[in-house]
Each structure stands twice: as structure tokens, then as C-alpha cells.
Amino acid sequence: MQKKIVALLVSALVGVAGTAGAQTFVSADVTANTTWGGGANPSPIILQNPIFVKNGATLTILPGTIVRGQPRTAAVLAGSTVGTPGALIVTQTGRIVANGSPASPVIFTTAATDNDNDGNADDADVNGFKDKYDAGDSFLDDTPTTAPLAPLNKAGKSNVSLWGGVVVLGSAPTNNAAKGGVGYGKVTIEGLTIPGFPAADATYGGIEPHDNSGLLRYVSIRHAGDEIGDGNELNGLSLGGVGDGTTLENIEIYCNFDDGFEWFGGTVNGKNLAVFFVGDDMFDLDEGYTGINQFLFGVMPFFNENAGTAYGSASGDKAGEFDGDNYRPDNLALNDNVNTRIDVTNSVVDPTPWPLSNPAMYNMTLIGSTPDAGQAFVPASAASTNRGIQFRNGFAGAVHNSIVVNTGAETGIEVGSGTGAPGFGVVDNANAGLLSLVCSTLDDGAALAADETTVVNNGNALNLALGGTAAGANATTGAFTGLTVEDQTFNPTGNAAGKLDSSLKAAPINPRSTGSIGTLGCVSPRGPGLDPGATYRGAFLRTAPKLWTTGWTAMNVGGLLAN
Question: What pLDDT is recorded for position 347?
Fold first, then answer.
């Protein structure tokens, strides 16, 4: 009874900054300008359910604030939102300003409880759903600023899907099959396509490339990826049609069940983006995304759960999944006379493609989950494809000054199986100079299956080898230049069982490049806010005295990543 009385008293703090030691419970949507946090010891914000920022409201989250999402407390039922996890959704009519600092980041994490102090989230019942946090309970992730929750709990299970995640929705163009023509229609974001959520609050896309959804700077999003609806797990940070008026800098996704970052179209740019131990792709872009990003760093999970090999939705699938579009245009074409898409079966055939993803990605260091020979531990999943970056569905753009390693039997770059509008497939784009891969170091993995299209790393020119075809049918392009095979592995240290333990903290991952791959002489990045002097491979200068991840990321503060 006393616990419930305290909870009722704390609930009165909804929508305002709480006092030190209290909690601010949020259960209603943000529909007016609201500030969370403040003071030397800001009270944690508890998201009781999916919270939508809308109706022209700006949500401001002050430095040092910890936002906790409730875990899912019941089975997902069709047509019901009972037991849904906490999540934050910034709609097309809302804005977010979360402006942390290296010393005081804004941290999103779980409100899951550990009242028996055994290092595992409390289960509500035999089905494994988690206990809802009430005032006075003990948090599982009790000290995220100084001792972040480990990727695995003390029972050897992954600390993922412990709340929903963060979604930002804007009005920038996409290439969805939208009503009213390319970039004009709106569709519902992945993860929220379920009954119970008004379509107007979960849609994205439009005709405003410079749309401004706010600012995220020095933000860490941890242990997310739970389901809002059946089969609708969330990414760490979902970006639907977000415009380039939005600022994304110094953002970490840590231990998410599904993807780390996923761009669904849009034009937003980013800098200093980090992803660690996610269950699916680290960086996933599609639906006509055209932003510019610099300094991207990611590490796939390289450890197993005690009870099997699963860690997330795909146990670390790809370092990057780069799609030109998110559909097979086999039966669609553009009718320029009426500006609508029509079925080619009506004898109106126009091969003009929809707007394809055309981003520029500079200075990436992407570390796969497969160790080299001689390492004691095993990959996160024997069934995982563990690809580096996959180009598919007519992808075009630039990938420069990057390192993609530890991909095992998979090559650093894989070209998807030829999807895309006629004359605008990945190979076509490369030969036409619309796709470039320059000054990058790739894993030297073995050949892929015959039904896959691969990039074969041959040095200064690559053969785009179409799987299953004769060698003489390979397309050769000079768009891929300055490439080298792997000469640094960045292998983490682990034990024979593939578990995280003190040995990793004793030898944290140091992602600084060495040898030839750390030298200057690569492409000078060009774009708003980029560092044009970063003419080296990877996300970090080899002589950098301190990494840009130092002090604010869970990986660094937790001792898994070097300073």
C-alpha cells in the first residue's frame, strides 16, 4: 500500500522536472512545449507507454537527464496496446531538442526492475514479460552514467528489448509507393503499423527536404527494441522522412534488438554515430535516403547467450544494409503525364526509376562479429550472414575513407542480387559513375554462395561478379578505387565460451587504425558540417589522443572501448 501511495504522489510530476531522487512518470502525449530534466541531479523520466510529441510541441531534454522506458509487461494482442513498452515518438508535428554534452549526455535506457538484486530483470510471470517499474523499485540499469548495464545479464541472456526505442518522423521526401506521387504521400513507420495508434501520429514523408525535427546531440539509446505490436520491434533510432534541418551528432545505439540506425528516406545529415551489439543491421538506409554522414563506428555482437546463439532479430546481420529503394519495381513505372505510378501490365512502360537512395558516407569503421583464426571465442550466431555492407535495390551514392573488417566468410562489400529498375541496378549505377567506393579497406573473406552477387576485392579496380554467371560476364568498373585488403582486425578479447567477461575490460577495443590504412591521402569529405581534413580511412585518426566516443558512450564508460 505504501509503495502505491508513493507512486501516486510521484505521478503528479508528469510533464515537469522532478526533484532530486524523485521520478517523473509520463503517460500522456506531449502536446505543449515541455522540458524534462534540470538541476544538478535531474529526476529520471519514466515513459509508461509509447509517448507521442505532436501538435506543434517541442520536447526539450536537458543535459544529464535519464529517460527510462517501461518494458513490455504483457503479450502483444491484436487490436490492443495493453502492456506496450515505453517509447518516444516525435511526430511530423512535433520537435525534440536533446542537447547533451560529453560530460552530461542524455541517456535513454530501460525502467526494468531488479528488486532481488540478482543482476537480471524481474519477470512478471512465467512467460518472461518484465515487471513494470513503480516508485521505490530498484532499477536493473541503476547507474547508467557511471556503470552501464552489460550486454549480457548475469544469467547469460542478452540485455535487449527492455523497452521500445526512439522514433523521429519528418516531412522530407521518400520513394515510397505513396498516395499522390513520389514524395507527396505519407506512410506509417515500421514498428508502429498496428491498431491502436492513430495513423496521423505515426506517418512520415512529404516534400520538405529542409524539414526540421529538432536536435539530438550527445545522446545514448540503450537496451531498446521491444515490440509495440506483433512483429513490430523498434530500431534504436528510427528516422522516417527526417529533413536536413535536423541535427544528429554524437549518438550511440547500444544493445538494441533490431537495427541501430535506420533511415527511411529523408535528407538528414549525421556526424559521430556509433552502434554496438545490435541484433540486426548497424546502419540501415533505404526509401530514397540522400543525407551525408561522417564518422560512423560500429561493432557487431561477438558473444553468445548461454542458452543458444540468438542475440537479437538476426544476431548481427550486416554492418550496413544500403538500399536504393525498399521495393521491387518489377510492375511499377512512372507516368510523367499524370505524375502517378501505374502498372506496367497496362502497357505503359517507363523505366524511369523512383528517386533512389544517394547518400555520402565518409570515415566509417565497421567491425563484424566473426573473429579471425586463432581467436578463442565464437561468432554471435553460426547462422548469421555477418556481411560487411550490402548494396542492393538500385543503391547509388558514395562510400569513402572507410574500414569494414571481421566479416568472416563474407566479403566486406556485397552487391545484392540485381534488383532495381531496368538500367538502374547497383552494377549499372557503378558503371555509370553513380556509385563509388573509394579509399577503403575491406575484409578479404571467402567466396559467397552462387546465388549472391559479390564484390571481389582486387585492389584498385573491382569486378562486380554476378553470382552464378560466367567470369566473362562480369561487369568491370573503375568507380571502385584505392581499395586494400584487411591488414588490421580489431579483434576484441573474449573467453572460449564466447562470453563477455573481465578479459574484455582488461583489453578494451581500440578502433584506431594502424599501418598503411591509417595514413592520409584519401578523399576530402565535402558537405555541411563535415571535417574536410579527415582524409584517412576509418572513424578515428590513428594519432587521436582521445576518441570522440570517450566519456559519454556506454561502451567507453563501461570499459569495453578504449579512450
Answer: 43
Q: Are 317 and 260 in contact (CB under 8 A)?
A: no
Query: What grid cell was written down for 451?
Result: 546465388
* Residue 504 dihedral angles phi and psi, to the nearest 5°: -70, -45
How many CB atoms are closer than 10 A to CB 421?
23
CA pair distance 107, 144, nearest whole angstrom: 8
Question: Do 175 and 265 form a contact (C-beta atoms < 8 A)?
Answer: yes
| Phi–psi pair at 560, nearest 5 degrees | -90, -15
- Supply 184's cell numbers: 507527396
pLDDT at 421: 58
> Hey, is 558 helix, strand or coil?
coil
CA dihedral 390, 433, 526, 253 (to 10 degrees): -10
The pLDDT score that the predictor gives to residue 194 is: 77
How far apart are the C-alpha atoms of 62 and 25, rounded to whole Å? 16
Whole-structure pTM value: 0.87
Residue type, 41: N
Neighbours of 124 (CB within 10 A): 17
Nearest CA among 420, 435, 402 for reference residue 525: 402
Q: Which of 215, 230, 311 is nearest to 269 (CA)?
A: 215
Q: How far apart are CA 103 and CA 44, in angstroms?
A: 17
CA distances from 257 to 125, 161, 276 (A): 21, 6, 11
Cβ-Cβ contacts under 8 Å for 513 (sequence gap 6 or more): 365, 403, 488, 536, 537, 538, 540, 542
Residue 450's contacts (CB-CB under 8 Å, 6 or more residues apart) are 467, 468
The predicted pLDDT at position 283 comes to 97
Q: Which amino acid is at 225?
A: G
Please, which residues bridge with residue 68 across strands?
Answer: 46, 109
Question: Do residues 385 and 308 touch, judged by C-beta distance below 8 A?
Answer: no
**Sequence-ordered list of residues with C-beta below 8 angstroms from that of 119, at least 6 positions apart, any chain:** 153, 154, 155
* Strand 87-90 relative to strand 166-169, pairing: parallel
Would you state the cell numbers that stand for residue 341, as one nine-digit string? 505510378
Strands 387-392 and 413-415: parallel
**CA 50 remoteness from chain centre:** 19
Quick one: which of 255, 300, 226, 225 has its CA closest to 157?
A: 255
Residue 417 near residue 394, CB atoms below 8 Å: no
Residue 101 CB: number of other CB atoms within 10 A? 14
Q: What is the mean pLDDT of each run of 10 residues along the chain (563 residues)?
A: 36 37 89 90 90 97 97 82 91 97 97 94 85 94 94 85 96 70 67 78 91 98 89 90 97 95 96 94 92 95 66 77 64 36 41 69 87 49 65 86 77 64 68 79 52 35 34 41 54 51 72 74 90 94 94 94 90
CA dihedral (285, 391, 533, 548) positive or negative: positive
CB 214 within 8 A of CB 58: yes
Whether the Cβ atoms of residue 113 and residue 122 lie closer than 8 Å to each other: yes
Calculated CA dihedral for residues 373, 375, 376, 378, nearest 10 degrees: -70
DSSP, res 362: E
